[in-house]
Amino acid sequence: MRHNFDECLSLVLRAEGGFTDQAADPGGATNMGITRATLAGVRGHAVSKADVRALTRAEAVEIYRTIYWAAVRGDELPAGVDAVMFDHAVNSGPKAAIRTLQGALGFKQDAILSRRCLRAAQAADPAALVRGLCTARMNFLKRLSTWLVFRHGWCARMETLERAALALCAQAPPPAAAITQDPSRATAQNVR
Fold first, then answer.
1. Cα–Cα nearest to 7, from 98, 69, 57
2. Which of 143, 94, 151, 98 is nearest to 121 (CA)?
3. Average pLDDT by consecutive 10-residue portion of the chain (192 residues)?
4. pLDDT of residue 174
5. pTM, entire model
6. Across-strand partners of 35?
7. Radius of gyration of the chain (CA)
8. How many CB atoms lie within 10 A of CB 50?
9. What is the distance between the alpha carbons of residues 179 and 162, in angstroms, rounded to a whole number?
10. Cα 158 to the chain's mean position, in Å?
11. Engineered SS bond to 92: which of 8, 25, 52, 96, CB 3.0-4.6 Å?
């Protein structure tokens, strides 16, 4: 399976931007999408707004890889699905993202990403799964108390994400099971 961490990270960083500290944002001071609470958890001690503002890209990338990408097992997801799951984890937390995937695949929504659920995600039509995940996530966002404040940004983010994720689906090679060994033999077998 192709690993898309860098491409998915690029999408997230474009959506998240730089340092912000909006009163309406429950995350408070945030830089490159990393909240003050997340940074404090990673560093193991309280951090100031100045610490958040001074966050380096290298540290942010490592946080994204270890806390969000690893939690949704991005390396094991189909291209496109990985982007949607990663972005959802960053925006709403890994457990919310995993529950959304489980719901889309008909699994119990316990926020534990089982091997069985991963296999179902790998076997699903990735474009259909991307669309389903994006629809479910928009429904989730609309139920949040901050919807009216952030709806325009979230709608733009979701539109951009879905378009990019579908492009990743289209670029991905078909699963190994779908590749025939020799196209001429496959045609000859169909004639018999």
1. 69
2. 98
3. 82 91 84 94 96 96 96 95 96 95 96 96 96 96 91 94 95 58 40 36
4. 64
5. 0.85
6. 30
7. 19
8. 8
9. 27
10. 11
11. 96
* Residue whose pair of structure tokens reads 């529950």 in the numeric block: 99
**Which among 161, 151, 163, 166 has a CA at the least distance from the CA of 11?**
161
Tokens of 98: 């995993």
Total residues found in the chain within this entry:
192
Topology, domain 5-170: Chitosanase, subunit A; domain 1 (1.20.141)
DSSP for 13-75?
Answer: HHHH-S-B--TT-TT-SEETTEEHHHHHHHHTS---HHHHHT--HHHHHHHIIIIIITTTTGG
